[in-house]
Specification:
Chains A, B: It catalyses: L-histidinol + 2 NAD(+) + H2O = L-histidine + 2 NADH + 3 H(+). Chains A, B: Zn(2+) binds at residues 258, 261, 360, 419. The structure is a homodimer. The first copy, chain A, is an alpha/beta fold. Chain A folds into three domains: 26-229, Nitrogenase molybdenum iron protein domain (Rossmann fold, 3-Layer(aba) Sandwich); 234-376, Rossmann fold (3-Layer(aba) Sandwich); 396-427, no CATH class. Chain A has helices at residues 11-19, 26-43, 45-56, 69-78, 81-99, 138-151, 169-178, 188-197, 214-223, 248-259, 274-288, 294-304, 313-323, 335-338, 356-361, 397-413, 417-427, and strands spanning 2-5, 106-108, 114-122, 125-129, 155-159, 182-184, 207-209, 228-229, 237-242, 266-271, 306-309, 327-331, 347-350, 387-395. In chain A, helix 2 (26-43) packs across helix 3. The first copy, chain A, starts with a strand and ends with a helix.
């Protein structure tokens, strides 16, 4: 952990090293992934089964890749009733939030002779990638599938690697509760390729969302354009802005909830109150020992944990806007007062009783957020990601007469006279 | 041109050859572009000036790259008043349409103890790429800059190559009218790199939009993630659906307005009325001879023009949805009757008096549209592309008490106990 003063010499360079911790996929990974994609594209199921045997130690025929209704039933029965209730609550709350993002098709009838508008149409099929193996993230299923469901997507296809064939019942239960239509036990670049191009068994989709390792992320980047993808995610981060108010114990716990994710996670506190910062530093050390994932959290905190002392709250806010954090906690007395000043952040957790973990699971907003400063231009995953728009344009003959000469003029400026002719031919007496 | 029956053997294979006409950037182009990006990133203005000298035959110092206020004034004075009026009308109409896309920040106060919402914030700086050289597209400036302006973007930076230093006055006038803040006479991959990473002279932006050649497109794809980009565009296309009504002369003119763009453009008519299709075929031949860009249009029409006879209108619509055309004309008697059936299209031109050219210039909707079937998942360029969203989450202590146990449960399912602790520590009595 570094304890820095924002005004000390070399501060920016020290902080930049944290920001740039993300691994770049590099040419070697790209070559491997390109090979896998080409292979699945040309040989379909055959290649998919081979890679699944090799990487996931799972041998089955093509039909065996799909999770059966009986497996779903079994998984649902395995989940403890209170856990099931918690997952249901998450699905309900996430659905309720995302319902508010839905946009309507619209037309403008302001002009009597020219009508314009926008048609909003759900995507026909989407693929959701869910990590498997050691990790088990039912919340990832909820956060990807529910917005797709709310958007009205025709078919939601989930892929999740099942090393040795084993599936996590909580992940399957979350899929069931979230409205996933089909689940395939495949993963890695081969799963992304199968979704992008389709095989005899796996349907070709229009968009692929969801987190994965570097092979999955690289595969998504490489099939972008063939299908849509969500944002390109790097390692996760939290920034806590503090004004001296609140409890250092809580802030330390929030920093650690980020640090336990993985060793590349970064947890940063910026406070105008040095002694608050010192208390948080001590608390983190104390709490670290109590964590089941102590080793990971400690590595993350030691490598990428930072406590920064700023001159005042304004300086802290300016810093935050500069780095555009994925998760931003406003651990201040009056968070709504400074909300308008926050210009770059994935999600903003307001006040002393809103830990990031609440947003991760069930507050309602999506937990798929732009990382590594990309909140400057990317948005959280939303219903918008699962619809597309078509412009609607309708001219009457009178409308075309009214603006026809201007269209012809612009077409001439561009040297595109066939454009102008398509108008003038219609207006010829 | 091919005249096909949708039910003939081999139809799909023949049509697929048209769909797959787009050039892939290939590894060689990528290597060149990667080199240029790395060079501009490390040597800044020095590299930018070198490439500009080499590729655009323009020698100047760094300050000379920026267009001066005097140059703007001169350009405005050079434009004919009626052309200026046409450009103004385009800017006004495009602005009016895009105003309707603006979304508000919102909060939900449905629950007394948990508040959620979404903050909408304009991007701080965006870069707009405008092609230069032989081509001159003031409409491209309007269609990229106006949505950014409407969105409230802080600074709009335009780049346009100026071979030998020459700038087109209509492009500069369009920039002025559209609210572009700064213009640099640079182009190619080096301009994209300068916008993505910044140099001493060119500001680093948050997002880059606008069309360009294969080097520009490849550069945009490679800097994606460092900055946002708009969609990845391939060659342009139009599909006209016809029910036998309307005038073959008009439809032929519309097909040619697409064909004149470039030799890779594709113009397709699908009609349930064979004799209408035959008339259009004859009309295209007749009109081709009258075009200033006859050679380009003829090459495009011969290579990628298709007239398809369908069994009925439903079959034509199903075909259209399958190929997801960039431009779709519903040259039918009652276009609004079939609008709900159209699920994939960039822009839909309704009825016999709405030529594509009207939408290209000034109907209001954007002319930057998803090509090559990507309308399955991409949308037209819009105000949404120039804002980003941040989730807002606020819990009171009571709210956290209400759902805290469920958060802890889900965190346990995922093996992330520090997540649960950040909640339970706050609720400890």
């Amino acid at each position: 952990m570094q304890f820095l003063d924002i005004r000390e010499a070399g501060f920016q360079a020290k902080f930049d090293a944290i920001v740039e911790r993300g691994e770049e996929s590099g040419r070697e990974v790209e070559e491997v992934v390109l090979g896998i994609i080409a292979d699945v594209r040309s040989r379909g199921d055959e290649a998919l089964l081979e890679y699944t045997r090799r990487f996931d130690m799972l041998s089955c025929d093509a039909a065996g890749l799909e999770v059966t209704p009986e497996e779903f039933d079994k998984a649902m029965a395995q989940v403890e009733p209170k856990d099931l209730a918690a997952l249901k609550l998450a699905v309900e709350r996430v659905a309720r939030f995302h319902e508010k993002q839905k946009q309507q098709s619209w037309i403008s009838t302001e002009e009597s002779d020219i009508m314009v508008g926008q048609k909003v149409t759900p995507l026909a099929k989407v693929g959701i990638y869910v990590p498997g193996g050691k990790a088990c993230y039912p919340s990832s299923v909820v956060m990807n599938a529910v917005p797709a469901k709310v958007a009205g997507v025709g078919e939601i296809v989930m892929v999740v690697p099942a090393p040795g064939g084993e599936m996590n019942p909580h992940v399957l239960a979350a899929a069931k509760l979230s409205g996933v239509d089909r689940v395939f036990r495949i993963g890695g670049a081969q799963a992304v390729a199968a979704l992008a191009y389709g095989t005899a068994t796996v349907p070709k989709v229009d968009k692929i969302t969801g987190p994965g390792n570097i092979y999955v992320a690289t595969a998504k980047k490489l099939v972008f354009g063939q299908v849509g993808i969500d944002m390109i995610a790097g390692p996760s981060e939290i920034l806590v802005i503090n004004d001296g108010s609140g409890n250092p114990v809580h802030v330390a716990a929030d920093l650690l909830s980020q640090a336990e994710h993985d060793e590349l996670a970064s947890s940063v506190l910026i406070t105008a109150d040095r002694s608050f910062g010192e208390k948080v530093a001590n608390e983190v050390e104390r709490q670290l020992k109590e964590l089941s994932r102590e080793a990971i959290a400690r590595k993350s905190w030691e490598s990428f944990g930072v406590i920064i002392v700023a001159g005042d709250l304004d300086e802290a806010i300016a810093f935050s806007n500069r780095i555009a954090p994925e998760h931003l906690e406003l651990a201040v007395e009056n968070p709504f007062e400074i909300l308008p000043l926050i210009t770059n952040a994935g999600a903003i957790f307001m006040g002393h009783y809103t830990p990031e973990a609440a947003g991760d699971y069930l507050a309602g907003p999506n937990h798929t957020l732009p990382t590594g400063g990309t909140a400057r231009f990317f948005s959280p995953l939303s219903v918008d990601d699962f619809v597309k728009k078509s412009s609607i344009i309708h001219f009457t003959r009178g409308g075309l007469e009214r603006v026809g000469e201007d269209i012809v003029r612009i077409s001439r400026l561009e040297g595109l006279d066939a454009h102008g002719r398509s108008v003038s031919l219609r207006l010829k007496k």
